[in-house]
């Protein structure tokens, strides 16, 4: 598949984001991409508290959520097993630019193998206590592991622009991929998404973005599997 390529721009906290011409939206919040990644996804899913998080991500994008999670687990010596889906990968050159200064060996290995992986439809890299597998496919048609994930990062583009990853059927499949006690986190607080997560059997909580330090973000959702 042909990688998408565009120019990174700085967000409010100094981290970089990229605009997607395909979806007409930014990959991450212009108000602070790194802060949103940590607050909504890492902390919202409680992955930062898990001794060995198993993360399933919908929308690998810039790799920001992975880098945030990798930094956390590496810093506390935790094991990380990360599975991500990305239908329209960015060019390796864009990933290098948005992650300038990143020194983690696993991320650097990913950059080396990225182009070959996008051509093959999948890549897998491991280093130390962390493993990453990226599947370059439409997650709505992909096989998902059942009862596996301690955390799900639902980070597609908005329901209006990327509706296939927000359908009730897709939310039910993501719920089924969670292990008991696992948590799904998403930046969206749309009513239809909340209702879909509840219908999928999850206990849903609205969290206030501004109270969590997210400028420009009213609410986001966290959903826990009993």
Fold and architecture overview:
By secondary structure, the chain is of the alpha/beta class. It has a single domain (8-224), classed as Vaccinia Virus protein VP39 (Rossmann fold, 3-Layer(aba) Sandwich). Helix content is 29%, strand content 27%. The chain has six helices and eleven strands. Strands 6-7-5-4-8-9-11-10 form an eight-stranded mixed sheet, sandwiched between helices. A three-stranded antiparallel sheet has the order 1-2-3, with helices on one face. Strand 1 and strand 2 form a beta hairpin. Helix 1 packs across helix 2 and helix 5 crosses helix 6 (191-199). The longest helix has 16 residues, at 105-120. Residues 1-5 have low confidence and may be disordered.
What is the strand and helix layout of this fold?
Elements: E1 8-10, E2 16-20, E3 25-26, H1 33-43, E4 54-58, H2 64-76, E5 80-85, H3 92-98, H4 105-120, E6 122-127, E7 130-135, E8 149-154, H5 168-177, E9 178-186, H6 191-199, E10 203-208, E11 219-224
Parallel strand pairs: 4-5, 4-8, 5-7, 8-9
Antiparallel strand pairs: 1-2, 2-3, 6-7, 9-11, 10-11
Helix pairs in contact: 1-2, 5-6
Task: Kindly identify the CATH topology.
Answer: Rossmann fold
Approximately how much beta-strand content do the residues carry? 25-35%
Name the CATH class. Answer: Alpha Beta
The name of the CATH architecture is 3-Layer(aba) Sandwich
Question: Which regions are unreliable across 5 or more consecutive residues at pLDDT < 50?
Answer: 1-5
Q: Characterize the largest beta sheet: strand count, sense, and whether it forms a barrel.
A: 8 strands, mixed
Main sheet strand line-up: 6-7-5-4-8-9-11-10
- What's the total number of strands? 11
**Rg (CA only):** 16 Å
Query: Helix/strand/pairing class, anyone?
Result: alpha/beta
Global shape: globular
Distance between the termini: 39 Å
Average pLDDT works out at 93
If helices are DSSP runs of H or I spanning 4 or more residues, what is the number of helices? 6
Give the number of domains: 1
